[in-house]
Amino acid sequence: MKMMNSDRREILKSAAMAAAGSLVTGGSLPVVQADPGVADLPDGEGLTWNKAPCRFCGTGCHVQVGVEDGRVVAVAGDKAADVNKGLLCVKGYHVGGILYGEDRLTEPLLRQDDGTLKAISWDEALDIIAKRIFDSPQTFAFYGSGQWTIPEGFAAQKFMKGGLSNNHIDPNARLCMASAVTGFLGTYGVDEPAGCYQDLDECDVLITWGNNPAEMHPVLFSRVTDRRSRGEKVRIIDIGTRRTRTTDAANEYLNMKPHGDVAIALGIMHLLIENNTYDTSFVKDHCNFRAHPESGKTLMGEAISEDEFRKRIAEYTPERVSELSGLSVEQIRMLGDLFGDRNIRITSLWCMGMNQHTMGTAINTLVHGVHLLSGHFGKPGDSPTSLTGQPSACGTVREVGTLSHALPGGRVVANPEHRQQCEEFWNVPEGRINGTPGYHTVKMFDQFTMPTDEGGDITTMFVQVTNPGQTLPNLNKLFNDKEQLADKFLIVSDVYPTPTTALANLILPAAMWVEKNGMFGNSERRTQQWFKMVDPPGDARDDCWMTIAIARKLFEMGHEGMQDKDGEFIFAVKDESGEEIPIWEFEHYYDTNVDKHLFEEYRQFTTMKHKNLAPYEEYVKARGLRWPVVEQQDGSWRETRFRFSGFDDPFVAEGEEFDFYHSSTKDGKAQIWFHDYEPPPEMPDEDYPLWLCTGRVLEHWHTGSMTRRVTQLSRAMPTGYVEMNKEDAKDANIRQGETVVVESRRGSCQLPVWIDGRGRPPRGTIFVPFFDETKMINNVTLEAYCPISKQPDYKKCAARVRKMTEADS
Amino acid sequence: MPISGLVLTFDSPVEQNQEALDAIKAIPEIDLGQANDRKLAIVVDSDDTIRDREIWDTLQQITSVTNVAIAMVAFDSECEEEASNDTNSQDDTPEDTQGANRTNV
Ligand code: SF4
Question: What residues make up the domain containing B50?
């Protein structure tokens, strides 16, 4: 045990007091100032410091990682990082602890017929996987995540689409931000936010749409609340279905019914037109109108005239919107007036509330439409901005395109020209890439857990860096059935045992975070890089290496797809003398920087949709760079804060104020969409009278598989719970802390009740976080999804709460 | 020697909980910080993880304290040892602290 000197102890104590004090006085700010004593600690005496992005949320804070004797011993906020300027939230402070849970997976494990697990060698594991794929390459599926690093995602993508000609690759990000992607595509013709975090520093009004950044993106939210403590005026309007810590910091809370957001956005647009307060010149110069054709819903829809738009939006009077949304007519008029005022700057923020929605694409395009129609767009502080929950949902999933329909750099498999471009970059024969999109997540698991003789045509699945056994909706249908199916083979690479490894046939021990090189891309288009700092435990290895090693086995078995046009291995890396480096052998994997090779290959794709990236070495020097990153005449590289805006975006022609240069109408204009309101797919009824909403908590990251291993975080939030309204609990004779059964038509879950807890749901509503694997709320949720994005709705279904005694009877 | 910044939430405004405040003040490792409505900031600076745990349990058992939240913990090797020790524990309270109820492979 090391002893702390008294100065350092005092510094840490005052930092701890400041942190606790900020929570108390700020009401909702779980953010702490970087400890200057830690951040300024010099290297030496065996202690070294290196930068890395935080492992957790899409905010993308940078940390300084202190390493001593091959072990992470300290973590500090990185003061040089523009994203967080030295701040970290409570999870970020404990990020080092996630490496050292006692039950790390350290060797490949193969499940035996009697259900037990037997340790096997890596070579045996790779042989088993390669044989299954070789025997049936088209019934293999690869399921990854927004925690895949950029090179990991790129390798998986190339392996599947450029190697196996198989598009059954999808990420868990389908469950969290697919609707944001389709919203951006439908509106601008290209994905990802136009603005950046600077919008939060400059807005006069922040509207959170079903979003709780105070807990989910705490450091980001602190940028807004810190402005208040400096005396600036920022008005926060929280539109939600329950009160949260964000509500505590808000000036106004607007309680909407589930799906009310769609009506509210339509109501704002109605008022902008009715009051003639919309931005006529912005709309005339930069926007078109759009809606779904009568024949059905499509991503790009069809053009409608402004008159047609006016006619349709006229139906959404404040009175009707009030009825649909639950807001008062005055509240809707207040929002209409706000957007009609161009002397203020308005930023909208959203995340899962709008994305996990059966009208996910619709509500995303509608909120963009509100900003476009009102002209609150493209100036610092005037922005529609979606956030991501995972550290590289943007960098890996959206940019590398690890979705079943996509290719790197904003290309899609269905487009022959795109396929040809990718085949050229990958130097694989023409026709190698399959033109039919693969299965999206829900379909993929449905096919995997369906008996083969009933049409379940996915027989082998490889899951990396995610925990679908806890996160899929309606687990009884989409995951738990796997247990009965002897011919289905589940391979899971992870760092700890999870509900997914519990059903796995083969478990692979993975390296995590600073145990490997990596690159992430955060919510503001910022690409970040870090180096491996410590060794993984036991025989745990990099996910990227696993993909390459499997590919190599297939290459050696003679699988043609593992060869490029010249007959070389598709992941061949050569040294300066032209000799191939055997990176598929783990002892040689770090003979070169594989991440750098893959990134430089991937970088070629990024110019096609103006998502240009700089060379790898630029990211080594920086705390991330926001794309498009373009080279200047002096050889330096310049990032972009505001896309499509002439004052900052290098791809907007000189003198132009705006240019939506990937417009789907090819006229430089964005699309303002109309969608009719539709009710949720399942509503409370006599048998299941409550709305169930699920989500996350501050202390735990997603399924808690990492954060529940950190004592301090686990203590702070030890167990899942159901939040209930006080009156609802009283009516049902349910007491604080009592364990109850939460159930739906699909399944049930036992949880302790928290009344008037951190979140306060209105009558008729309950909330359950999904971080606790011992209390699987996704047995209860619904798998209905947005027809365009295929993203399921975890935010609303019909449920009931029963006392244990009633449930028993 | 863990150092942590905690936020205690009471079931009523802090100043109405004199008895509880006296009990907290009586713990020598605790420094009291700012209070606001039902919330109180404190810092715990204990000699070892066992004592830290005792203090944590004591705080949680105070009847009028409804929640104990961590604002910051000094992260160093001691914390990891502590985490490792805790995962071996099978008699943690509350019932679902880590270790006892996680997936086994
Ligand atoms: S969890 Fe998110 S907000 Fe917290 S430190 Fe990490 S990146 Fe920042």
Answer: 3-74
User: Is residue B52 domain-resident?
Assistant: yes
Q: Which of A64, A157, A331, A390 is catalytic?
A: A390
Q: Could you tell me the residue ranges of all domains in chain A? A: 6-100, 125-176+393-589, 197-386, 690-808
Classify domain A197-386 at the CATH topology level: Dimethylsulfoxide Reductase; domain 2 (3.40.228)
Give the separation between CA A460 and CA A471, rounded to whole angstroms: 20
- Whether residue B30 is contained in a domain is answered as yes
Mutating to test ligand 1, I would choose from A28, A29, A35, A56 the residue with most ligand atoms within 8 A of its C-beta, which is A56
Q: What is the CATH number of the domain that holds B24?
A: 3.30.70.920
Pick the more confident residue, A215 or A286.
A286
SS3 A307: helix
Give me the pLDDT at residue B46, please: 87
What phi, psi does A740 have (nearest 5°)?
-125, 170
Q: Give B 65-84 residues with CB within 8 A of chain A.
A: 67-84
Question: Mean per-residue pLDDT for B84-103?
Answer: 35
Q: Which residue has the higher pLDDT, A403 or A226?
A: A403
Amino acid (1-letter code) at residue A573: V
DSSP helix/strand/coil, A479 = coil
Interface residue B4 vs chain A (CB under 8 A): yes
pLDDT average, residue stretch A732-749: 95
Task: Quote the pLDDT of residue A7.
Answer: 59
What is the model's pLDDT at position A228?
Answer: 83
A57 Cβ inside 6 Å of ligand 1 = yes
Q: Please give the residue of chain A at the shortest CA–CA distance from B83.
A: A711
Closest C-alpha to ligand 1, atom 6: A92
Question: Is some CB atom of chain B closer than 8 A to the CB atom of A515?
Answer: no
Residue A687 has, within 13 A of its CA and on its CB side, a CA count of: 5
C-alpha A82 – ligand 1 centre gap (Å): 13
Res A29: pLDDT:
34
Report yes or no: A12 at the B interface, CB cutoff 8 Å. Answer: yes
Angle of helix A150-157 relative to helix A594-603, nearest 10 degrees, comes to: 70
Higher pLDDT: A39 or A172? It is A172
- Known binder of ligand: residue A225? no
Contact A709 B5 (CB under 8 A): no
Question: A34 and chain B: CB distance < 8 Å anywhere?
Answer: no
Going from the Cα of A638 to the center of ligand 1, the distance in angstroms, rounded, reads: 25
Band (B85; pLDDT cuts 50, 70, 90): very low
pLDDT of A362-406, one tens digit each?
Answer: 999 999 999 999 999 999 999 999 999 899 999 999 999 999 999
A363-393: string of b/e by CB count within 10 Å (b at 16+)? bbbbbbbbbbbbbbbbbbbbbbbbbbbbbbb
Interval A459-495: pLDDT, tens: 999 999 999 999 999 999 999 988 889 899 999 999 9
Q: What pLDDT is attached to residue A27?
A: 38
- A740/A807 Cα distance (integer angstroms): 8
What is the full DSSP assignment across A573-584? -B-TTSPBP-TT
Task: From A217, A223, A394, give the residue whose CB has the most ligand 1 atoms within 8 Å, as the site to mutate.
Answer: A217
CA distance A388 to A404: 19
Mean pLDDT of A14-33: 55
For residue B83, pLDDT over 60 is answered with: no
Would you say residue B80 lies in a domain?
no
Q: Is residue B95 part of a domain?
A: no
Report the CATH number of the A690-808 domain: 2.40.40.20
As a CATH number, domain A125-176+393-589 is 3.40.50.740
| A446 or B48, greater pLDDT | A446
Find out whether A402 and A169 touch, Cβ atoms under 8 Å. Answer: yes
**Number of domains chain B contains:** 1
CATH code for A6-100?
3.30.200.210
